[in-house]
Amino acid sequence: MTVLKVRNVETYYGAIMALRGVSIDVEQGEIVTILGANGAGKTTLMKTIAGLMDPEKGNLALMGNDITGLEPDKIVRQGLALVPEGREVFPYLTIDENLRMGAFTRSDSIADDLELVYSYFPILKERAKQSAGYLSGGQQQMLAIGRGLMARPKLMLLDEPSLGLSPLLTQEIFDIIGRLNKEQGVTMLIVEQNAHIALETAHKGYVLEMGRIVMAGPAKELQDSPDIQEFYLGKSDAGERGQKRWKRRKTWR
Ligand SMILES: Nc1ncnc2c1ncn2[C@@H]1O[C@H](COP(=O)(O)OP(=O)(O)OP(=O)(O)O)[C@@H](O)[C@H]1O
Ligand SMILES: [Mg+2]
After folding, report:
1. Mutate which of 20, 44, 192 for ligand 1 pocket (most atoms within 8 A of beta carbon)
2. Is the dihedral of CA 110, 115, 118, 124 positive or negative?
3. pTM for the full model?
């Protein structure tokens, strides 16, 4: 079953075209990653999927239902959870309250789901009654993921879960993401600048450059691609010219 189908989407900020005909697919049970440098359009794509921005052209379907132009809360009700860039937890609410907010679309019992989230993130359970604003960056990321899970989403979008985190914490977060996928069957679309860890965790990947998908394939294939190695994995052994191009890219980012 295709959980998300994005077709030829064009999204603008005023006159600036940020997405230039983007098409992607996410199948049930998959972790799909979108790689791209700063300003490539990753967050714009996430916002377009979540209904926070409307595409000028193209269409989107979630679980086979057209969601193009739908209000964000309606898309949430159809099974989408967005873990936004910068986490955006509610700092004055407790961890427990933040998690409960994630289940606002549900009327059934959420006790089991709370326990499930706490089992993946024991630190959140220890601090359940504390304000979320006191959590470290990594713990806030865990809380944001936990809050997303509380909705029992059909698809979870994660926008740069590694942002501002140490390599060790990034690894820890991605290990948990991998486990949630394997053990709970959570389907995820993850936007990441850390191509190394994203491709280790994902089944499939797309590369977004200046609003366009320029490469797509199984994560293993992308890992082996010389272009990906040079520009996204930093394994440039293409000589001086390659090094210069890499540097230029870095400046451009
Ligand atoms: N509010 C805005 N108004 C105008 N242009 C914007 C706005 N937000 C983003 N853009 C532009 O749209 C393009 C895509 O931005 P976007 O935030 O989607 O990139 P990104 O891949 O998420 O980057 P980052 O890795 O820095 O988060 C960029 O050229 C950016 O300057
Ligand atoms: Mg972004």
Report:
1. 44
2. positive
3. 0.90
Could you tell me how far CA 67 lies from the centroid of its own chain? 19
Question: Whose alpha carbon is nearest atom 3 of ligand 1?
Answer: 13
Pocket test for ligand 1, best of 9, 19, 35, 42 (most atoms within 8 A of CB): 42
Domains by residue range for the chain, with CATH: 2-252 (3.40.50.300)
Structural tokens at position 104: 């606002």
Query: Model confidence over 168-191: pLDDT tens digits?
Result: 999 999 999 999 999 999 999 999
Could you report the per-residue pLDDT of 10-37, keeping only the tens digit for each? 999 999 999 999 999 999 999 999 999 9
List residues near ligand 1 (CB under 6 A): 13, 16, 18, 36, 38-44, 85, 193
Taking residue 15's Cβ as centre, other Cβ atoms within 10 Å add up to 5
